[in-house]
Amino acid sequence: MLTCTQERVLVTALTPPLVVDLDGTLLRSDLLMETGMAFVRHKPLSLLQPFAWLVKGKAALKEGLAHATDLDVSVLPYDPDVIALIEAERRHGRHVVLATASHHTLAERIAEHLQLFDQVLATSGDHNLSAHRKRDLLVEHYGEQGFDYAGNSRDDMPVWAVARHAYVVNPESGVERRARAQGNVEQVIHSNPSRGRDWLKALRLHQWLKNALIFVPLLASHQLTNPALLLQGLLAFLLFGLCASSVYLLNDLLDLADDRHHQSKRHRPFAAGRLSIKSGVTVFPLLLVAAFAGASLLLPWEFSAVLAAYYLLTLAYSLSLKRLMALDVIALAMLYTVRIVAGAAAFRLPLTFWLLAFSMFMFLSLALVKRYAELREARSKGDTEKTRGRGYYPDDLEMISSLGASSGYLAVMVLALYIHDQATAALYRHPQVIWLACPLLLFWITRVWMLTHRGQMHDDPVVFAIRDQVSLIVGVLFCVVFLVAT
Fold first, then answer.
1. Structural domain of residue 104, as residue ranges?
2. Does 387 lie in the same domain as 341?
3. Nearest to residue 162, comparing CAs of 143, 141, 176, 179?
4. Based on the domain organization, do 36 and 84 belong to the same domain?
5. Quick one: 322 and 248 in the same domain?
6. How far is CA 45 from CA 39, 60, 319, 320, in A?
């Protein structure tokens, strides 16, 4: 009777090995793009270095990025269907090989983490193991028709041509048809279909609601019914939204590692591998160009200047400021306030001290709500170390809540002082009615912080306000108060 080891050796001898590609097949991502984004995130001042590596060849680029970054392979988006296929073949004693064009250091770390492979073949030195080179190496090891191969891209076509059976996994456009034409397709796996709602989520169109702040200067000056200014406002809203969506895409690409360690953010389309990094790198600059082209052609130059300031501040926030205590929430408050400044620039209306002061204190409070929600979640898990990607510890909760509530109440005080300004009397027939807005705002701020303290706050207070019925009612009443005062 044969032992289990002997049976496995016999099966391996009789059954060709299963060779599995990594990027786009086992992994719902691309390690070259992963390491490239990680390099930009951690070494933004060394952006020319990858081009110096690329001059020496693609293998040198992969090696340089692999050694210059530190990917956590345990949280990468692996395809569960491919893993299930590998596990089923291994249970039958089949020899399984990981063959990839990614650098061998990354491939070996992944193989060690998954514990699914008997052998690893990967890029090393100046030998980029892709397409024809991978085909030649596999034929050298196993002979033509001496292995089955699982892949996903056009580069895999030469390999499938010499394989016994082809396993096609989430194929690129046109690849499945070409693979079937070769006549050896054993199985096609569609486990990661492209969905329009993933792009809607990545672009965060719901966050465009923040851009309604552009209309605040128009409201404050009582010119909302001016058709020409209203049209300018709609254009500014659209263009600011395109710029903001570009920023959201770039932010998600730079934050892949941190998002994958977050309980909810790990489900974002790029972090989960439902959208490719390459597509994000293509789309975000297109949106940015469209935003600035439209702004320069259709709106005053001052709006373009404010839009540029917003983009630069957001870029600084994504690369550095979001990880610095206090500076992160101040930057967030400024990013809200700059939308009001953009509106004033689009309409060429003056900004008032009261409006800027109110917005800074109010949005600082909301930014601190966001941080409190994140830290409370970390504390509930028993964490005591600094939160990943942030400059805070879970023990900072009490101080953050104190600062946040105080900032919100200061916004109410600014509103109360605004009522007694001489300019206010000139704008409103009954300025004293605005006093009714103060208790409404006090109630809303207090409720938001109480819910945050109880752990009932969404990690984005804007999303909470959109979905919360009480917040919507308070918002309507707040507008009614100012309408009556007018």
1. 4-189
2. no
3. 143
4. yes
5. yes
6. 10, 20, 11, 12
Please report, for residues 17, 103, 211, 215, 296, the alpha-carbon distance to residue 299 in angstroms, rounded to integers and kept in the order given: 63, 48, 16, 15, 6
Rounded to whole angstroms, the maximal C-alpha distance in the chain is 101
Give the CB-side neighbour count of residue 270, counting CA atoms within 13 A: 26
Which of 189, 212, 227 lies at the terminal end of a domain, its last residue?
189
Strand, coil or helix: 168: strand
> What's the one-letter identity of residue 340?
I
Size (the chain), residues: 486
The token duo for 395 is 């023990």
Nearest-CA neighbor of 83 among 103, 106, 120, 110?
110
Handedness of CA 366, 469, 435, 430 (dihedral sign): positive
CA–CA gap between residue 228 and residue 44 (Å, rounded): 42
Rg, C-alpha atoms of the chain: 28
Same domain (yes/no): 362, 320:
no
Q: What span, in angstroms and rounded, lies between the C-alpha atoms of 307 and 94?
A: 58
Contacts of 466 (CB under 8 A, 6+ apart): 206, 209, 472
Query: The domain that contains 141 carries what CATH number?
Result: 3.40.50.1000
Which residues on neighbouring strands pair with residue 97, listed in sequence order? 19, 119
Domain match, 402 and 322 both: no
The Cβ-side half-sphere exposure at 227, using a 13 Å CA radius, reads 0
Phi, psi of 127 (to 5 degrees): -105, 100
For residue 436, which of 412, 459, 469 has the smallest C-alpha distance?
Answer: 412
Sequence-distant (≥ 6) Cβ neighbours of residue 406 within 8 angstroms: none
Residue 276, number of CB atoms within 10 A of its CB: 19
Q: Show pLDDT as tens, one digit a residue, over the chain (486 residues).
A: 445 444 444 444 568 999 999 999 999 999 999 999 999 988 888 888 999 999 988 999 999 999 999 999 999 999 999 999 999 999 999 999 999 999 999 999 999 999 999 999 999 877 889 889 999 999 999 999 999 999 999 999 999 999 999 999 999 889 999 999 999 999 999 998 877 889 999 999 888 888 989 998 888 888 877 888 899 999 999 999 999 999 999 999 999 988 898 888 889 999 999 999 999 999 999 999 999 999 999 999 999 999 999 999 998 988 888 888 889 899 999 999 999 999 999 998 888 888 889 999 999 999 999 889 888 887 877 777 777 777 888 888 889 999 999 999 999 999 888 887 777 777 778 878 888 989 999 999 999 999 998 888 876 787 788 888 998 999 899 888 888 887
The reply to whether 149 falls in a domain is: yes
| Residues 305 and 409 placed together within one structural domain of the fold | no
Could you tell me if 285 and 399 lie in one domain? no
Residue 285 token pair: 């600059």
DSSP state of 457: S
DSSP state of 26: T
Domain count, the chain: 3
